[in-house]
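Whiteboard transcription, Tuesday session. T.W. wrote the C-alpha cells on the left side:
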C-alpha cells in the first residue's frame, strides 16, 4: 500500500460532525492553562487546584455540548463503535507527559511558561478532533441496513 495514497485518502475524508470551534478553543485553552500552572512558582495547593479545575472544565465543556448527542446518533446510524481507539488515546499520552514533567521547571521564567502554554494549547487544539472522536466519524463505512 502506497503511504501517499493513504495520506491522501485520510485527508480527503470530511468530518461529518466537526468539533465546534468554541469547544475546541475553550477546552484547549483550559488544558494549556492546567499544564502551564504547574510551571509557575505559585504554592502547590494553588497550582494543583488550577490544574484540577482546568482539566475538569475542559472535560465538562466537551461532554455536555450538544454536538456530543449528534455524534452519538451518527455513530449509531453508521454502526461506529463508541469505544476509543488507540489513535484517540495516543495524543492524550503527550498531554499526560507534559502534566508529569511540567513541575520539573516549577518557577520557570515567564518566557518558558508562555512557551509551555502555547505548546500545550496548540497540541490540544490540533489533536482535539481525534481525541473527542469527531474525526473518527469521517471513516464510517456507511449507514446500517435493516435486514
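and on the right, the sequence the group agreed on:
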Amino acid at each position: 500500500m502506497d503511504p501517499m495514497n493513504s495520506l491522501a485518502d485520510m485527508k480527503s475524508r470530511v468530518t461529518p460532525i466537526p468539533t465546534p470551534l468554541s469547544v475546541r478553543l475553550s477546552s484547549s485553552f483550559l488544558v494549556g492553562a492546567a499544564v502551564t500552572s504547574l510551571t509557575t512558582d505559585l504554592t502547590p495547593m494553588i497550582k494543583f487546584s488550577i490544574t484540577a479545575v482546568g482539566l475538569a472544565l475542559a472535560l465538562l465543556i466537551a461532554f455536555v455540548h450538544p454536538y456530543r448527542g449528534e455524534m452519538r446518533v451518527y455513530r449509531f446510524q453508521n454502526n461506529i463503535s463508541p469505544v476509543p481507539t488507540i489513535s484517540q488515546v495516543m495524543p492524550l499520552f503527550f498531554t499526560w507527559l507534559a502534566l508529569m514533567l511540567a513541575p520539573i521547571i516549577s518557577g520557570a521564567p515567564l518566557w518558558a511558561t508562555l512557551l509551555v502554554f502555547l505548546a500545550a494549547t496548540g497540541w490540544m487544539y490540533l489533536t482535539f478532533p481525534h481525541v473527542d472522536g469527531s474525526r473518527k466519524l469521517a471513516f464510517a463505512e456507511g449507514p446500517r441496513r435493516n435486514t
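Someone added at the bottom: The chain is about 65% helix and 0% strand.
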